[in-house]
Amino acid sequence: MTERKKPWGGRFSGATDARVEDFTASIDFDKRLYRYDIEGSVAHCRMLAHQGIISDDDARVIATGLKEIEEDIEEGRFSYSRSCEDIHMAIEQELIERIGSVGGKLHSGRSRNDQIALDIRMYLRDEVDAVRGNIQALQDTLLMLARREVGTVMPGYTHLQKAQPVLLGHYFLAFWEMLERDAERLKDCRRRIDVMPLGSGALAGTGLPINREYVAELLQFPAVTQNSMDAVSDRDFVAEFIFDSSLIMAHLSRLCEDLIIWSTDEFSYIVIADSYTTGSSLMPQKKNPDVAELVRGKTGRVYGNLTVLLTLLKGLPMTYNRDLQEDKEPLFDTVDTVKACLSIVRGMLENVDVNREKMRREAAKGFAVATDLAEYLVMRGVPFREAHHIVGRLVASCVAGDKDLSALSLEDYRAVSDRFDDDVMEVLSVERSVNARTVTGGTSHDGVMKRSERIEKKDQSS
Predict the structure, then answer these.
(1) Are 204 and 103 in contact (CB under 8 A)?
(2) Is 88 a catalytic residue?
């Protein structure tokens, strides 16, 4: 096979060392951008004809050749030459081989610098939409679980210590809210991604009479970049996407951490289905929450990708530098990881059995209604700090006597404050405790149902 010439090889007299070829090549990973590269090239070709820079006949031949190459790639018939550094060169050189020198007209008025910026933006806006779709699917599952478990009382924790009883449905809606903010961040990020950079050239634009706005219209970009140097040299939109993904992973990791803890024998709040767990090669009794653990582990991987991007950008002189080739692998890995994790967590949640009785029993332990007792006194005119102290004395007495607040008599209560009355025993119910939290955002049954209904109405209207 004849060695293909480098498109930049005119001023070079010697061949590139094979080790340099391998070291500088990005074709192994950026070939996933082929569809966007071809779509952008077809639009650029149409613009060149529209502006009279190339003929309509040449434009038709080029566009047809590009579409044939795309079909060959889709069908697995395309062979990527090692002499091609990247997806742009692979497609352009193949085009020239197929249609002759007319293919060389395609690159008029553009550089690989603005070409890759375009490809990444087109790729990323599609992937943002895909990630947001995965978020929505997981939110739907969380909403379903919230409604199903609206009557399940469980211990709420602070500092991993039992704090106050809450509804499991309220817990699931907490993660719905986190993911909603994640989706909103991605929506805002997409607005900054959705700006067309082609026509910026290598760094200074082009002297050819191109029409950037026409290309933007063809590629459905609402705006074009306003500074050619900025357009080819920054990847802040990539860093922003990975940051947003890092927060998604943080939220998934927190959820998975709870599921891991709750599935232990010590808690036994949930049972994760066999289909979402694995076993031990040594211990036959083991059932491990490996899916949840891997999501927790992959969170660090995405954090690492963010560090790579920020470190990559922090010291680059203007404008384009080859360092920017290193933006793609962390980006692609983040996209793949976050989509996979959102999908697998959804499946896992749909295959979890809840031990409602155990949760309810544990919710009543650990003096969980102590705050309710303090609020009972507040409603009878006792200053909160004094009420806090009174209930603290009751708890200390229970700890010393190894008993719970429900084991105390009315006389025991009145011994520490005459503000306690016959109805104090009603305060000790965990169901009464959760349903007393009727403030907006509280854990009451009505609060969870109303929030669920508002979410459903929002989804139906969007």
Answers:
(1) no
(2) no
